[in-house]
């Protein structure tokens, strides 16, 4: 059952969020939810998603979009999503490579040993999709090495098995992606998460080694190229609430949505944090005036994000992580579909 309790004037809810400029107004109590008393907890996303998928610890939280769709495809319908996106970027620019392995472009990843914290995580899903669509590199062309094991992973809670034809090795618990990249046991990594949490093990500052570099020397240029071609601003995290809560209190969905939008607006009004957080946005807007881009970058809601969410659903199926393409309507609260 839900952790929520009714108080005389408010519904009390537990909420878990990562600590960033867009969520901080809620975590710190500067922005509230009408009719709700929040009990906030700041949690690293890797740990948060694992705890929610395995234990459903919190009434409301951020959630990995890919793991949410995958869980639903396998009959786990404990969560209802809101079109609130606390993390989005151009994930192909996170790829790191060793400079002594003949990797001059993304197409050179074919046949290479590549690390990934978790195969089904959204950032990895986007990067694999972009590698295939933009550079002709298929997941089956790479030898994958995954850091998270079944006990401490999203996939451990969603019944993950490697897609047919994909070579996926489990990294031994005595080592991690960072150590393997430095030692030469890996040629590259799709992304790298060195921040301390219960789920990820890597801590090495790999970019302090001169033979490890980003795949794209100019991430802004690659971001501009990709957005200009596709019109997609990739999304990583959404916000979910327990379905049983939504069914008992359907008004919660829009009240929560409004609170997150207010928190985002407050963060954007803070010039110092807005400049820091919108560096990518600034570079792209400077390169081209595009109202669609600005809408995606500055607002939450389903109207502007539906093509991105639908792309995620297709990537999940195309990459062998679901047996069908799930619809947006299956995942998100009905009352949020037209905003």
Helix content: 25-40%
Main beta sheet: 6 strands, mixed
Query: Could you tell me the radius of gyration in angstroms?
Result: 20 Å
Structural class: alpha/beta
**CATH architecture title of the largest domain:** 3-Layer(aba) Sandwich
Q: What letter string, H or E per element, gives the SSE order?
A: EEHEHEHEEEHEHEHEEHEHHHHHHH
Report the β-strand fraction as a percent range: 15-25%
List low-confidence stretches: 282-291
- Strands, total number: 12
Tell me the domain tally.
Answer: 2
Any idea of the CATH topology of the largest domain?
D-Maltodextrin-Binding Protein, domain 2
Instruction: For the record, give the distance between the C-alpha atoms at the N and C termini, rounded to a whole number.
Output: 30 Å
Mean pLDDT metric = 91
- Provide the CATH superfamily of the largest domain: Periplasmic binding protein-like II
Looking at the structure, what is the overall shape? globular
- The top-level CATH class of the largest domain is Alpha Beta
Number of helices: 14
What secondary-structure arrangement, pairings included, does this model have?
Layout: E1 5-6, E2 11-17, H1 24-27, E3 36-42, H2 45-55, E4 60-64, H3 65-73, E5 79-88, E6 96-98, E7 113-116, H4 122-135, E8 143-146, H5 155-158, E9 167-170, H6 177-183, E10 188-189, E11 212-214, H7 219-230, E12 235-242, H8 243-248, H9 252-269, H10 271-277, H11 279-287, H12 291-298, H13 302-318, H14 328-331
Helix pairs in contact: 7-11, 10-11
């Amino acid at each position: 059952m839900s952790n929520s309790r009714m108080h005389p004037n408010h519904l009390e809810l537990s909420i878990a969020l990562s600590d960033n400029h867009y969520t901080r107004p809620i975590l710190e109590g500067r922005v509230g939810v009408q009719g709700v008393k929040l009990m906030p907890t700041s949690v690293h996303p890797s740990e948060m998603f694992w705890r929610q998928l395995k234990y459903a610890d919190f009434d409301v939280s951020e959630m990995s979009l890919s793991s949410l769709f995958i869980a639903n495809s396998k009959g786990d319908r404990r969560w209802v999503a809101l079109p609130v996106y606390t993390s989005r970027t151009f994930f192909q620019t996170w790829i790191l490579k060793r400079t002594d392995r003949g990797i001059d472009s993304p197409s050179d990843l074919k046949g290479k040993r590549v690390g990934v914290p978790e195969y089904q995580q959204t950032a990895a899903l986007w990067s694999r999709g972009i590698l295939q669509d933009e550079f002709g590199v298929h997941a089956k062309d790479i030898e994958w090495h995954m850091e998270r094991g079944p006990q401490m992973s999203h996939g451990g809670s969603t019944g993950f098995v490697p897609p047919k034809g994909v070579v996926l090795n489990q990294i031994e618990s005595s080592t991690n992606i960072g150590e393997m990249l430095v030692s030469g046991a890996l040629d590259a990594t799709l992304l790298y998460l060195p921040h301390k949490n219960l789920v990820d093990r890597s801590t090495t500052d790999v970019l302090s080694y001169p033979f490890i570099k980003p795949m794209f020397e100019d991430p802004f240029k690659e971001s501009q190229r990709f957005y200009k071609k596709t019109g997609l601003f990739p999304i990583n995290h959404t916000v979910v609430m327990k379905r049983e809560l939504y069914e008992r209190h359907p008004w919660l969905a829009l009240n929560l949505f409004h609170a997150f939008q207010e928190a985002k607006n407050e963060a954007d009004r803070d010039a110092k944090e807005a400049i820091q957080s919108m560096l990518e946005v600034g570079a792209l807007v400077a390169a081209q005036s595009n109202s669609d881009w600005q809408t995606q970058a500055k607002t939450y809601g389903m109207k502007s994000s539906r093509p991105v969410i639908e792309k995620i659903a297709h990537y999940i199926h195309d990459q062998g992580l679901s047996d069908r393409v799930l619809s947006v309507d299956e995942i998100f609260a009905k009352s949020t579909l037209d905003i």
